[in-house]
């Protein structure tokens, strides 16, 4: 029997997450029947790695500069992230190095539980884009540690397409002077999810942007928790989240910006928006600013609403079927979160996945 120590919903940071299914998933064995993974690769032409139930598939991978083995990545006291510490993949780039194309990583799961760590180490002026796709069933638990050197630039785009089960993603990042990190999530499957991100803008002039679109239906739950800490002057951060909940689903995001006393000239913005497809669904938005410096520009906004009846009537009057009109307006609602993905192939793939979800939800 596996003993899991899981947080309770009575803890503030976990009050919107339902982890009740995890002990049973931890006792289940994966079927091992993963099927064909080729459809989940975008064909960017760069390094590609396949993991099935957390196990590296060398015959189906072209890792390039990515290595697989023991990983030095720590989740601190995070109760889920620390379960993933140990083995995983590592992308290490030296000064001014960059892969010729995005790194694609596909994770397929066939039930049960699998844990895996990752580490992205980029020296000064290095650049990389990483596109990750998660599909299948079961509890998929991941920890990603990121270190960006001076003026390094990284883009990470994550698709959560699991059909059932639970997907927990923990990210820890540290950015040096002038470094830039963009992380985007799309939740468009049937599994519940929990996203925890903590990024420290340690160097002067660092930039971090995180956001995405989390789409939930049925009794599904998505829960994102983000902390961006400005520790040095002239840093900039952006958070853009779009949450959509249909049926009796719940989509939640808690986003906090912390500005240390010495982090003068910080520029931070949060934009959190939720769309209720039915009034039986739930959206929770919690923006927070914790500021100790006195010369900063920080703003946050949070709104929850429904599709505009006037817009639906306008489209209906022009011959657009009601279901298509709902999908069209919902697509427009999440567009500003997905449009910020820098890699065109990833951006279009993410939009395609969202369109497929909208077709099923409309």
UniProtKB/TrEMBL annotation:
Transmembrane segments: none annotated. This is SufBD protein. SUPFAM superfamilies: Stabilizer of iron transporter SufD (SSF101960). Pfam families: SUFBD_core. It comes from Tardibacter chloracetimidivorans. GO terms for biological process: iron-sulfur cluster assembly. Residues 118-333 form the SUF system FeS cluster assembly SufBD core domain. PANTHER family: PROTEIN ABCI7, CHLOROPLASTIC.
């Amino acid at each position: 029997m596996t003993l899991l120590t899981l947080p309770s919903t009575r803890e503030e940071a976990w009050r919107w997450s339902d982890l009740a299914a995890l002990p049973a998933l931890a006792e289940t064995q994966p079927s091992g029947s993963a099927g064909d993974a080729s459809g989940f690769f975008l064909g960017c032409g760069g390094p590609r790695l396949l993991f099935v139930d957390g196990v590296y598939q060398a015959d189906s991978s072209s890792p390039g500069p990515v290595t697989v083995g023991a990983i030095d990545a720590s989740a601190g006291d995070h109760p889920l992230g620390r379960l993933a510490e140990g083995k995983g993949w590592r992308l290490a780039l030296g000064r001014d190095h960059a892969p010729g194309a995005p790194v694609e990583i596909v994770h397929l799961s066939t039930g049960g539980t699998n844990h895996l760590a990752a580490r992205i180490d980029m020296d000064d002026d290095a650049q990389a884009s990483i596109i990750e796709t998660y599909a299948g069933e079961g509890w998929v638990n991941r920890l990603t540690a990121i270190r960006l050197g001076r003026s390094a630039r990284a883009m990470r785009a994550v698709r959560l397409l699991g059909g059932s089960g639970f997907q927990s993603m923990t990210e820890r990042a540290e950015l040096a002077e002038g470094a830039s990190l963009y992380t985007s999530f799309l939740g468009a499957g049937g599994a519940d999810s929990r996203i925890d991100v903590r990024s420290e803008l340690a160097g002067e002039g660092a930039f971090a942007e995180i956001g995405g679109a989390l789409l939930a239906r049925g009794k599904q739950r998505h829960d994102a928790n983000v902390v961006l800490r400005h520790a040095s002057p002239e840093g900039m951060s952006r958070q853009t989240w779009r949450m959509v909940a249909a049926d009796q689903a719940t989509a939640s995001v808690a986003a906090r910006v912390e500005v240390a006393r010495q982090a003068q000239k910080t520029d931070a913005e949060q934009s959190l928006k939720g769309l209720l497809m039915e009034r039986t669904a739930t959206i929770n938005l919690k923006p927070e600013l914790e500021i100790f410096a006195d010369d900063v520009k920080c703003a946050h906004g949070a709104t929850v609403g429904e599709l505009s009846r006037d817009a639906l009537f306008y489209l209906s009057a022009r011959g657009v079927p009601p279901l298509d009109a709902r999908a069209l307006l919902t697509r427009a609602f999440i567009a500003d979160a997905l449009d910020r993905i820098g890699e065109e192939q990833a951006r279009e793939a993410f939009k395609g996945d969202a369109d497929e979800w909208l077709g099923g939800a409309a």
